[in-house]
Amino acid sequence: MSKRVTRTTCIGLDDFGKGIVRIDNVTAFVSNLLPGEEADVATVFKYGKLDHAKVEKRYTSSPDRVRPICPYYPKCGGCQIMHLSYEKQLEYKTNKVKELLHKFAKLDIDVLPCVGLEDPKRFRNKVQKPVRYNGRHEAVAGFYEAESHHLVPIKDCLMESPLSSKITKALLALINKYHYPCYDEDRQTGLIRHILIKTTTDQKQALVTLIVTDENLKGRMNFAKDLIHQCPEVVGVVLNINSRKTNVILGERDVKVYGHTRICDQIFQNKFLISTQSFYQTNSRQIETLYGLAIEFAQLKKEDVLLDAYCGTGTIGLSCADKVKEVVGVEIVSDAVHDAITNAKINGITNAHFYKDDATNYMLKQDKKFDVIIMDPPRKGSTPEFLNAVKKIAPRKLVYVSCDPVTLARDLALLKDSFTIEKVQPVDMFPNSLHVETVVCLQIIKK
Q: Which sequence positions are flagged as catalytic?
């Protein structure tokens, strides 16, 4: 292994927010370096190939550099670009979508400026934190360092709600009080793996889930009552059983401990129940912005039959129900489908129907005509089979809500022979991070 230090200037940012430098015809990617900044960069080579690079000393500062508001940054891996001004973060995300569409879909199209938040902090309605022991054998929670499983204990994350932070402190004190052993990832021993906290937009309700290796927690009822006594906003405590030797956070089985197993939030005029397993957009303050764009792009008509694919708890489809003849929602997660059906009932919506199925499987056996399709797939995107079925159905409008511009670009490459891409609108759901949501409006090409 050899190391060399070179004074150089950053020429751009890559897709992961790292500064791009060129040293002796080798491209290196360096954390915490912005375009135009000059620095000594150490490059470490292993077996003749570049292993990694890091800033040894920075000589100049970009006008776009700001002082991070978080005391844990950049050690904590939760945020990656907090040192970049928020205005430039939005510009970076706009350009990122545009460049990835060009790179992976050969699309050179206009991308609208990324829609941001007025205040890019305290926006998360869901946090999941690993729980481990510190050096004093006390339970601590936090987030992993970037590209590692080394836990950084966090007393207060500025991206989560104040209520979530308050609940975390109470939970850790009670875990210590009840002597529940924290999970040891190396030895694969202990009970408490993670804590999962979901809160409503108005901060009046919270659902707490303990991810555990075994449901036999001694005194768990008293634990839950103690928590609710300290944090009356907590309406329920649930155990999620995950005994697998895996990095996947949630197990498949939930066990109610005390209280309710769902909280109730509101989007537009409708109420939505949220459970441990069900998907719900994490940024409360941007949900109506994101869904409002999807509805606007769909240009719905009263006689339309709408497919809400990868529908989760039915949030998008039910928000459209008063604008169309019928909504059909398809989702693979059982709890989410149950919540979607319940959500339709509590809102008095009778023209929406939800089915538990893999979206691709559903489309392959479907001969129903849909006028509009709204799809909101997971980070891995959709499948060629699903997209080919969409092309066969040929809806008037297709709206793609994406949480990963790479898989979005891959999927648009398969759709562009049958649809015209009319609008591409990034939305910042995760300020200070690399992630960007994108809403794309597609119009069928009439043949």
A: 403
